[in-house]
């Protein structure tokens, strides 16, 4: 059994007033109209990525998002704290992390509470270990490096948080980082925006040729013109290039369509070596720019990768959810100013599914999530 995020409590974050012990499974597909709150749910995991990514990460994320007030449900006059409680089920037991963030006078977040615990399977629930309050960045990594008796637990939970990796391959502008030269050593993992795709593909080709061949073969199924990547380092840097069938020209990322670049990053993410997969893979609108036939291939890859890591997706595509079961789908809606989350129940849709696909049921507004 791989490590899995089984429950999320989140309150006061953007449009999410209160999400109480919400169950997550191996595949979780968020659907709903624009502005319902899907991206806000994913944004919380981006916050975790920044918070665990290095010195000053939390405040950098908050600053880039316009300040702490804009990250609080209806602002600080309505919400005093953003609170989160995450539960990770691992082979040996339940790992938990919680935090409470308040806004200070400089429109930054400050921790009002932070703690963690581990309860071994079959044993009584243990008390949370407090990391105190008043700090502006998580103290979990400091605790993990300490000589405390629970440092090993803190380190493990810190790694679980880091392994909740959010991906969004939307930036394909002229200045997009995916189109730039990258150092060949920037290959530890695929970045959330796919920027280091070239060095990461080079690493896969050299260390996991089977995965590399599968990536190339799958990309050819979606883009028949594609032949192979050209990943030749120049002065310790590498640029994303490839050649095409029937042409002796080499192409660079700046010449590709937005959909082609996103497809390259997405296929690499889903077909990378198992050892490199995050515990929780969060993807915002993976179907963006894909042909309907490519969506079929994408759904198959997602089902396959869910055997090795947990998947959370947000989508606007009815064609995409046609390939999944009701229990995979979470309907996100707005009730007034508040986002609500509701997982579908297969038995309640049994009659409808005899004659309609999941996408058609959604389009008919049987399950909600429509304007």
Please outline the helices and strands:
Layout: E1 4-13, E2 16-23, E3 27-31, H1 38-51, H2 57-64, E4 82-90, E5 93-103, E6 109-120, E7 129-130, H3 140-144, H4 151-162, E8 164-167, E9 182-183, H5 197-207, H6 209-222, E10 226-230, E11 237-238, E12 241-244, E13 250-252, H7 258-271, E14 280-284, H8 292-305, E15 310-314, H9 318-321, E16 329-335, E17 338-343, H10 350-353, H11 358-363
Helix pairs in contact: 1-2, 5-6, 6-7
Low-confidence stretches: none
Average pLDDT value?
Answer: 94
The overall strand count is: 17
Overall outline: globular
Q: What is the CATH homology-level superfamily of one domain?
A: P-loop containing nucleotide triphosphate hydrolases
Helix- and strand-based class? alpha+beta
For the largest sheet, list the strands in their spatial order: 2-1-4-5-6-7
Brief descriptors of the model:
11 helices; Rossmann fold; 371 residues; alpha+beta; 29% helix
Describe this structure in words.
The chain is globular and about 65 Å long. By secondary structure, the chain is α+β, with helices and mostly antiparallel strands. Helices cover 29% and strands 27% of the residues. It has a domain at 1-163 and 325-371: P-loop containing nucleotide triphosphate hydrolases (Rossmann fold).
